[in-house]
Amino acid sequence: MSIDEPSLMDLACVERTDLAQFLATLTPEEWRTESLCAGWTVKDVVAHIISYEELNLAGLLKRFAKGRILRANEVGVAEYAAMSTDELLAFLNRHLRPQGLTAGFGGMIGLVDGTIHHQDIRRALGRPRVVPVQRMQRILPLVPGNPRLGAGRRIRGLRLRANDIEWEHGVGPEVSGSGEALLLAMTGRRQAAEELTGPGAGTLLGRL
Q1: Cα angle vertex 51, ends 47, 57, to 5°?
Q2: How far apart are CA 201 and CA 194, in angstroms?
Q3: Which DSSP string corresponds to 121-145?
Q4: What pairs with residue 160 in β-bridges?
Q5: Which of 48, 62, 125, 174 is the most exposed place for a label (fewest CB within 10 A)?
Q6: Is the whole-model pTM more than 0.85?
């Protein structure tokens, strides 16, 4: 990272600020709309984003125990979704700079998680945006090797190439599309995968 290049934490903060400003424009009906995360409304996704902010190690272990690890996210959503939308938004505005677990790896968790879920919300509402190039170029290389996101098994044996920014990954039949669509497809969003093209696009889609 060059001296002038913002840190992952700085980018995570800007991404959350953009998300908070967008959420402030939503109607009650939009908050209740199902997101790209199956079974989660927009409100549920926001609850998930903030649910790890003030969680210490003891709290995390307790949540894992309650949710049997695989359902820990659902436990967090259930706890925070009880808040009103105004309360959720106020909480997010108090945590624009990731804290706790989402500050992990220099803000990487907050940046990647926040950007993906921002798009989950916007796509579900039919209110797309172009993720700033600088953010997308920093995020994409972080995803293929992240075991928590499951991208590795989805893109194995494929070559991914973004057609709107400079980024490619892997070897094999090509899958091309926007950086945003590739990001969401790698993390299991079928809607985005359907926008991709190339000899390997069908293989990736079939793995979702």
Answers
A1: 170
A2: 8
A3: HHHHHT---PPPHHHHHHHGGGSTT
A4: 169, 175
A5: 62
A6: yes
Place of tokens 């804290």: 99
Domain ranges of the chain: 8-125, 133-206
Query: Rounded distance, CA 145 to CA 141, Å?
Result: 8
Tokens describing residue 62: 């307790």
**CA pair distance 58, 144, nearest whole angstrom:** 29
Q: Are 48 and 76 in contact (CB under 8 A)?
A: yes
Cα separation, 165 vs 23, in Å, equals 27
**Residue showing tokens 């003030």:** 54
Give pLDDT tens digits for 92-145: 999 999 998 888 889 999 999 999 999 999 999 999 999 999 999 999 999 999
